[in-house]
Amino acid sequence: LEPESGSQVSVQALADKAGVAASALRPEAIVVDPREAHSVVYVLATVLLLPGSLITLAAGMVYGPWWGLAIVSPISTLGATLSYWIGRSLGRERLHRALRKYPRLSALDGALQRDAARLVVLLRLTPLVPFNVLNYALGLAPIRTRTYVVASWLGMLPGTCLLYTSAAADE
Fold this sequence. Notes:
- The protein is mainly α.
- 75% of the residues lie in helices and 0% in strands.
- The radius of gyration is 22 Å and the shape is elongated.
- The N terminus is likely disordered.
């Protein structure tokens, strides 16, 4: 479907080629699933260092404890993983330079490398470090992505289940 020189392809021609009604291509015909919108907002909030607890509460209130958990848990893990990758890509090399200067940081880096899964789970269970900051900080650590994802999911699951989603659904 190529336009002739100086002409444009119509929406109807594109719709005919795709086998859909032209009315389906209008912006008002696009329907967004609320779960998808919630997921996009949650991931963006996580990456932008915005608190996700209100978004988690909203999922518990709207979808109930089990569906809320089923929606929030993988999405919070995805947002955490994206932040981890951003932290890793932007800061790991700088951290390597700092480790050469400061032996104590090097020892901490070594501990994270030896027992990464357990430390990530424990850090996730401890509310001392904000969730979003921890995502970026752990991206600087020598933790494999798979270990980070699984340990983060396990460490975030109790908080998501007990503190937010279930509590919100009970109200």
